[in-house]
Structure of Glutamine--fructose-6-phosphate aminotransferase [isomerizing]:
Amino acid sequence: GMIDKGNHRHFMMKEIHEQPAVVGQTLGTMIDPIQGHVTLPDMPFDLAKVDRVTIIACGTSYYAGQVAKYWLEQMARINVEVDVASEFRYREAVMPEGGLAVFISQSGETADTLAALRYAKSQGQHILSILNVPQSSMERESDVVLHTHAGPEVGVASTKAFTCQLSVLACLSIAIAKARGKIDDKEEARLCIALTEAPARMADVLNHEEAIKTLADDVAKARDVIYLARGLEYPIAMEGALKLKEISYIHAEGYAAGEMKHGPIALIDEDVPIIVIAPSGRLYEKTVSNMQEVIARKGQVIFITDEKGAASDGQDAVATIALPMLDEFVTPILYSIPVQLLAYYVAVAKGTDVDQPRNLAKSVTVE
Ligand code: G6P
């Protein structure tokens, strides 16, 4: 066919490896690395006048939206709500006129997301969609479209479309922060430079995938896996759990590390692998203290951190994955890769149909 797996065993692996290139391409459509600023297509409304953002999507695209909520609130100091389309469309959500509604979809054809888009339109919202497949139904019904340049994604479990969605959302967050006067030229340039470092760091992580592969046989024996993180990485914990469920059929949950004490801590024993995702930054110490609580209860921790974190807290975990250092703002893009690789190698160890997992479809065009 026109698209082949190259020298990879599965499309998913090929698509994981394409990420440095397609994230670079996607950022290249919006960031001028010399001037250090973000340029978005002309919009038929004024971004500076938007005072409320509603983000709607399904599946992996929804987790990209969750990351964007943290970015927008922190940088642009704007109200953001995020919901899954299947709930949003029937909720009778209150949407004051002039708000911005953002729809995220790889296919642009997901039935629930399209219905939610039509509802938002009927409520007088500006409709901005972040789409991968060109010329979709959502593209036709949006006021403005930002394209991810991931190229065709064949594996049912989304990988490269997700990191490209994050790249677009990071740029959109910078643009909204700038339009609202919440960041200056210097800060905009700093954020742009940090983002343009992502592809090279992603390639570094992909060059060290053996470290993750060796963990897969043990994780493959588990009945349940818990992913813990805070802040920007919390949605990556949920996405990591979703990836594992989708392709390895192992039950997994992504949980806010600080919420663990209100329930999931009861599940922890020596048979439950706990994936803790904690790059250095504002919430690092808090997440590490949650990791210590897990270790004290004999949880088998796989610690995904950076070089600094590995040096200071790596000794107590069963395994530690040390990623390169990167600005905190960009970490969700980088930390997506180890959770994708872990799910992939666990699925391969279990012998499942990685590219076509049971009961799932690439795009769900019926309710
Ligand atoms: C399906 C796919 C997922 C995807 C979701 C949303 O469930 O299996 O990988 O994240 O739909 O798809 P969309 O095309 O709207 O991003």
In short: The first helix runs from residue 11 to 17. The radius of gyration is 20 Å.
